[in-house]
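Page 37, top half.
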Amino acid sequence: MQRLLLTLRFDGTRYHGWQVQNNAVTVQQILQDAIERVTGFRSPVIGCSRTDAGVHANMFCCTIDTASALRGKAMTAALNANLPRDIAVYRCREVTQDFHPRYSASGKRYLYRIWNASERNPFWENYAIHQRRVIDTDRLNMAAADYIGKHDFASFCAAGSSVQDTVRSVKSCGISREGELVTFYVEADGFLYNMVRIMVGTLLDISAGKREYDCIPSVIQAHNRLAAGATAPAKGLILNRVYYDGPFADIEI
């Protein structure tokens, strides 16, 4: 059996996240169906992350163990011929058996998009939230800088999560604007459940004047989900990049 690393992109609008569920259509299920049609065997697919319903990915890494002779571009083409238009594999490569798409990752980068205009834009309806109030990106960049560093992000973890270690290291974080499209970006060694969306929700509170721009350190120190802002809607979130070190550092988008 050979372990193959598949790198894919998907529009998460129609799916209930990545992980297989009994009563909903997910990206993992659709990919497993395609693999079974191509190889004749329903291979388990291990993903780099568990994205929520409506979340998108520009780089999502997953592995399969297969006896199929198909490799590289041949496997990529065969899978894409059996996948819907909103999921696409763009690279397939062989990796060693000790590679794990989640636990071998050294970090991830997420984007969150906001259409900041008086009127909504139908072209961004499934990929950005709509905010009418003008967002002061300079002010929010000052606030977002307080996310950077190694912190206990318990305040930014969804209530009910079973994770024990809530310490994460944020390497970079900020806000950019291109016309009416505002993008929040954050890169870290790992993320808690709903962490990025809660970070965005807290920044939106600051933008709306509900919180002071220097409130982030006190929210972090509270170690309490109730201290942070609301969880921003899923549709604005994109897993943009997964990073690997060592022998897997050449895995590119």
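Page 37, bottom half:
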Amino acid sequence: MAEAYDFDLAIIGTGPGGYVAAIRAAQLKLKVVVIEKEKIGGVCLNIGCIPSKALINQAEIFRSQSALAEMGIKLDQSGFDYSKVYAASRKAADSLSKGVGYLLKKNGITTIQGNAVLESAHELLVDGTKKVTAKSIIIATGSRPRVIPGFEFDEQVVLSSNGALLLQKLPESIVIMGGGAIGVEFAHIMNSFGVKVHLVELMERILPLEEKEISDHLRRAFVRRGIEVYTGTKVLSVKKSQ
């Protein structure tokens, strides 16, 4: 006699990997549960691709004022409030998160909020109390910012990419460690809103995984905009001032 399980498929995580797999499995008539410890939609939707692109869009709008000035159109920036920029980026992420939640519900997928721990090949324990069993389990827990010894995140002075996305007030200046895709995005966003940016990359060029021509072009553009770019440079330590 086949062993009875609560679900045919349990998925830990509701990011692009988790929720897409859940919906497809449900369409194939499987009984599916997803378990999410934070917000539906995962890292990309909530604290990654979506809010960062929302900030980039608003940064472009803000920067376009310089083009208007060249045509003799002057805008009063005295009322600029970055917390409203932040709120708009969160609104975009929250709207899409609700959309994913709707799709899960529409497809008859059970959603459990909590932290899942794998107890065995077919058993999960959620928040230390709720047992969930499934014939198959998919682990789609996504990623998190890497912690570098000596540069532990306090999200006040030393920020992760998550912390930078969730800033509601901009600093006067910022040092960005890493000139990859995420680093240059934040350099662009911060500089667009008037923050003095120092971009530090250990490799010999920013965007080291892209074509050299692209890296060189972006560096020239950043330098023209007043971004200080340091390549072949290693940050040795951080000292927090009072």
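Margin note: The mean pLDDT is 94.
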